[in-house]
Structure formats: C-alpha cells, structure tokens
Amino acid sequence: MTKSNETTATNLNAKTLKSFESTLPIPTYPREGVKQGIVHLGVGAFHRSHLAVFMHRLMQEHHLKDWSICGVGLMKADALMRDAMKAQDCLYTVVERGIKDTNAYIVGSITDYMYAPDDKRAVIEKMANPDTHIVSLTVTENGYYHSEATNSLMTDAPEIVNDLNHPENPATLYGYLYEALLLRYKKGLTPFTIMSCDNMPQNGVTVKNMLVAFAKLKKDEKFAAWIEDKVTSPNSMVDRVTPRCTDKERKYVTDTWGIKDQCPVVAEPFIQWVLEDNFSDGRPPWELVGVQVVKDVDSYELMKLRLLNGGHSAMGYLGYLAGYTYIHEVVNDPTINKYIRVLMHEEVIPLLPEVPGVDFEEYTASVLERFSNPAIQDTVARICLMGSGKMPKYVLPSIYEQLRKPNGKYKLLAVCVAGWFRYLTGVDMNGKPFEIEDPMAETLKAAAVKGGKNPHELLNIEVLFSPEIRDNKDFVAQLTHSLETVYDKGPIAAVNEILDQV
After folding, report:
1. Which domains does the chain have, with CATH numbers?
2. How many angstroms separate the Cα of 154 from the Cα of each of 144, 161, 205, 446?
3. Which of 134, 147, 111, 125 is nearest to 41 (CA)?
4. Is residue 239 within 8 Å of residue 197, measured between CB atoms?
5. pLDDT digits 0-9 by tens, 329-358
6. Which alpha helices (H) appear in 64-202, and where do they start and end?
7. What gap in Å lies between CA 209 and CA 327, rounded to an integer?
8. DSSP class of 66
9. What is the pLDDT of residues 14-69, one digit of tens each?
10. Cα distance between residue 93 and residue 104, in whole Å
C-alpha cells in the first residue's frame, strides 16, 4: 500500500484510472461500447458491493461485453449518488475489510447512471430497450409496498394511488415496471426478467405478485395476463455485510491509496448469492464467478433471513437500547451473544427445513463470527433502519409458526419485539431523543409513545400484525411482560430474565 494525503490524491474517473494500476487492481475490460444488459433500480452500497462486484468479476475474468449495468436512482435523495457516479464515470473503490487483512480494487461494471426524477420517461424507455434483458432491484423491503400481514399490495399507499392514476409520473417501482413492460408488450418484445436482490422471503415471487396486482388495478386484463404468464422473477438469497459509506471511509481510501473517491464501498470479505434459474430473456453465466444458481432457493433464503437477518434485527434494537454504537460491540456482549445463540437454537432453527450441506448451528456460529469483525465498523443504528419492512419478514414469521405449534416457544422472540417497540419511542434509555428512519416512522412512534408499556397500540397496526398474533392472549401477555421489563430494568435485564427461564 502507498500512503498519500488530500493534497496529492487524484480524483477517480475514466481519465485517471490507469494511474492507479500500480497501486491496486483496476478494470482491464472495455467500458465504452459495451451493451448494458442490466438496468438496476436502487444503486446503494449493497448493490455496489454485491451484484456489481459479480458482474465486475465476469467482465474482468471472462470478458463479457453485453452485460454491464445501467444504474438508476428512483428517489430525490439519490441526487448525491448521481453526482458522485457521474463525476467518476461510474467507477468506485471496493474495500474488503477482514479481521486481519484488507483488500481493495476498483469496479467498473456500472457503465451509466440515470437519475429518474430528471427524466422518468427516459428511464422507462431504457428498461424497455431490447438490449435490456434484466431489471434488477435493491429498493429495500419498504419499496415493495407489500403487507406481510395480508400478503397483498398496499393499494391505499399514496405512492401506489399516484402510479395508478398518473402513469406519466411514477413514484414506485411498479409504475416504472408496468410502463416499461407495456412498451415491450406493444412492440411484441420478450419481457425482461425482474430480479430482486433485496433481503426478503421469496423476493422474486413477491415483486411479481405485487406487480400483477398493480396491473389488474389498471383494468387492462390482457396485459395483466401477459405479465402473469410471461414475466419471470427469480427468487434469490443475497448476503454481504455492507455498512453505509461515511467521510471516514472516503478519507481512508484517500490516505491509503491516493484516490479521491466520493462513493467507495466498504464490505466484509464474505459474499454469497443463491439464485433461482428462472429468466425470460437470458442471463450472464454467474456460475463462473461463484454464484450458486439453483432450481429452488427457498431453503437457503429462509435460513439466511431467519438466522442472519433475524439475528441482526434482534441484536440491533436490544444493542441500541443497551448503548452500543457498533454491531461488533453488541456481539461481544456476553449476555446478548448468548441470547442470540439460544434464540436461534430454541425458537428459530427447529422451524427451518433442511438445507443441503448446511449445519444450522455452525451457520449461526459463522454469522456471529462475521458480525464480530471490528474492521467493518457496522453501526447499530444502520441495523435499526426500516424496521417496518424488516421485522415482518425476519422475525414475525417465526413467531407465527411457533404460535401454530402445540406448546410453541416464543419467549425469546418476544424480547426481540419488545426491544423494537421500546426503540420506536424515539428516546433511548437515558432519555435522549433520536431519529427513527422508517417510512412509517410517524405512525410507529405515535403508537409506541401512546402505548408505552402496553403493546396493543402497535399491535393494532394491521399492515404489520395479523389477528393471529394480535389476538393471541398468551403471546401478548408475554410480550407485555418483556416490554415492561425493558422499560423498567433495561434490555440486558430483560434478556437475562428470559434466559434464566429458558
């Protein structure tokens, strides 16, 4: 590694790229004149550390020329990413931080970036272009407008209402997908594949079902039937811890490699992608770079969502209330560490189907080891983001399954929900207020504050909780007790009390 500083560092872009080749690996493949076979909606840190890295490997090692990525920012908040990507010709640095070693390289698989608020029609036409074979997405769980409680499209959401009535001004992914597919339908073209890369159970099935529901509301029965019959949307399981980039990471890249990079990505070395082989218009040969392309993703997906993501959420809310800043600090708390291991062993793993070649206890141990990596500096606050999208998919399904079993076990799961409910007051255990980042923040906070130690106000939010959980007296009693304990004695005391019982 070479040392540099702000005054001698060089801005990263296509013209300066070659100047870095003696410092770290750079793209050696052509980036001009290649076809953009993938349009990706939601170019956040995870996409750039995951799908874009796999495409970079394919282009670097196997010379693919038809599958570069056109990134798309759908939200007004994506203006910062637009500015960074445009200034750098869509090049950026990936830094893989292990417990002992650090590896870095420049990725160039994203060859264009479009900012939808500037020209929504241009984005729709790009998706409809015959060169586009896949539209992939990382729009977070909330971007799907899917009610887990009712397994249906949130048709009363203002953004969905807008897209149904104003197709020229879409606000959700469904407005864009519908209009782009309609163009291809009218031209007699094969539909593109919709490929979700979000952490959701049956992410492919969910996005397609919600799109079909949206299409049926548009009253074009033939086109809705065409979507249902012809459009493919594979399920996938994605995994790589990728924190948000801050000025600290930007300075680190500048100081270490002499690169001025506005949007570097810092991630753990581990990377995994299990993908259902279900594509309507071709796909890259991802198997060549380590992607597990399989017939059925469900068991892999369920394992990861319930154990890794569910564990993440549980330690996130309890860890935040306990005063921790980073996830590795939470993992190293002996009480919370034990809680997560017992929670998985007692209440989650028994619900999971077998996964070929996987030992669940070993998988859980490996997850905790990955989370303990201090080099990643993954914040607890990041894990707590968007709980209304995460908890109904990562944690609540295990509770529902336990409630359906004779003598089902859910005490440890209830503590996790209690931690979330106390967090939603927007005030920490020392009385200091903090901001809740969630599309439902206003509703959730109001219910949490009004309910206090009584969980009913939150449980009555029907898009999050079904009657099955809300009306179960035993579970509500357990949740109420855990919530009272978190309020009165703190999260660690609440965890210790339940561990003593279990």
Report:
1. 10-287 (3.40.50.720), 298-501 (1.10.1040.10)
2. 9, 9, 16, 21
3. 134
4. no
5. 999 999 999 999 999 999 999 999 999 889
6. 79-87, 120-128, 158-165, 173-186
7. 35
8. S
9. 999 999 999 999 999 999 989 999 999 999 999 999 999 999 999 999 999 999 99
10. 7
